[in-house]
Specification:
Order of helices and strands: HHHHH
Strand content: under 5%
Number of helices: 5
Low-confidence stretches: none
Number of strands: 0
Mean pLDDT: 88
Shape: globular
Largest sheet: none
Radius of gyration: 16 Å
Helix content: over 70%
């Protein structure tokens, strides 16, 4: 049986691959940046995304930075973004705590279904 952690890790990998593919299709606009420039842009876009923490241009801009890191085989450095990470973590915690156990179960089933669908498409 697949554990919840395994499913979450697989879904993250699936989402990352899709994000990178979209970035490549749009032309890999950050390819020429130095690591220092990419780090600064990543910090700037993450701060903007942390203000909304919702789908939209801020998230897309940050995802492009993360995609460029992924293509370079590097991990983004979030060490200067503690306040923003704390804010986002609090928002997630608040949203999670305000949902019912039934909704948690529904979300888990949805994630498991997304994983199962992906496995079926691969095979």
């Amino acid at each position: 049986m697949t554990s919840g952690a395994d499913v979450a890790e697989a879904l993250l990998a699936i989402q990352t691959a899709a994000m990178v593919k979209e970035y490549l299709v749009r032309g890999r606009k950050h390819e020429a940046l130095s690591e220092a420039e990419l780090r600064e842009l990543n910090n700037t876009t993450f701060r903007a995304y942390a203000q909304t923490f919702a789908p939209g241009p801020e998230k897309d801009a940050h995802n492009d930075c993360v995609s460029e890191y992924e293509l370079r085989g590097l991990e983004p450095d979030y060490s200067d973004l503690g306040d923003e990470i704390d804010k986002m973590t609090a928002m997630v915690r608040e949203a999670y705590e305000s949902t019912t156990p039934e909704k948690h179960d529904e979300m888990e089933r949805d994630l498991q279904q997304e994983y199962a669908d992906h496995v079926r498409r691969r095979n």
